[in-house]
Design a protein that fits this description.
about 325 residues, alpha/beta, Rossmann fold, seven-stranded mixed β-sheet, binds S-adenosylmethionine, Methyltransferase, SAM-dependent_MTases_sf
Length: about 325
Amino acid sequence: MQVPSLSRVRRAAYTSVPSWTKPLATRCFYTLHPGASWSLYEQKARSREAFADRFFDSRAEFEAYEAEFEQSQVPGLLYQAWQEHSQPIYDSHKEECVRYYALVRKLRPTSVVETGVYSGVSTLAVLAALSVNDHGTLYSIDCSTQFDEFDDDTKRHYERRRPSCCEDGSHLLPGGKQPGWIVPDDLRDRWQLVAGRPQRELPHLLEELGEIDLFVHDSEHSKTGMLFEFDLAWEHLSPGGVLVSPHVGWNDAFDTFISDRAAESGELAVHYVHFDEYDGPGWCRYARKPAVDRERTSAHQSVKTAPKSVADD
Ligand SMILES: C[S@@+](CC[C@H](N)C(=O)[O-])C[C@H]1O[C@@H](n2cnc3c(N)ncnc32)[C@H](O)[C@@H]1O
């Protein structure tokens, strides 16, 4: 008889308790299992340092951007939005927001594209940095308001019918709000929001823009959906441009992508995610295009991507 692993037993126990007890269960686990919390703490510290070393001239430069983020209007706006709505709005974790902010400040991108806006946490962090840069535009694609129009198969893949970092029903925007509702008016002049599914809208947008400097995927987290967006965005990414994806641990799309492209990659942030089968550390990773783009100089190496069906894995 096969003895189930400890993590399997822990997961089964976690899955069976009512959802309102899960945050407490998580905290208890880390209190009773200090090794796990220290290991997560170390992972977080290591990924922060590696990120700073990769993108910034010095740790001090990165820390200055962190401090700038703390002083910006972003934390206050998020706190206020959270107070006003009982529903969670924090889809991007704080570490991710700080790093999006620092990356945009440092790279000074002209065009940033993101898919998956929801309330607009990552959107807000990117726009705040573009505003300080006084340069660049963020183009976002989101279909949150069209959920009711989707057929059953699409709904099955809409966040794969599971909560995204929060409770059931979280795919619905709070109180019928619009995607990115937390972005204040003074940050909207550098923002263009395209309503629709990335599978349909992303090819048009990228064709129109030609070249982009930063791409953030945070929409459909199925393997096919992620690979479709990664492949397409990569073709349009400028030399030295960066592609970012949260939730890379949910399937092997990101690993497949970077191994196929032999692309340089690393962790943008590590945080803790707790729900159902995804209870555990969550990784947000980046892939960076070489500063001198070898792919574009070799015409036949370029991979042409046709829109793929989203209904798999
Ligand atoms: C994780 S949330 C985005 C969170 C956002 N980046 C933030 O920081 O707050 C995922 C978003 O992707 C969109 N989405 C979910 N499933 C999708 C699908 N199958 N196709 C396209 N978009 C989808 C949802 O509308 C939702 O707004």
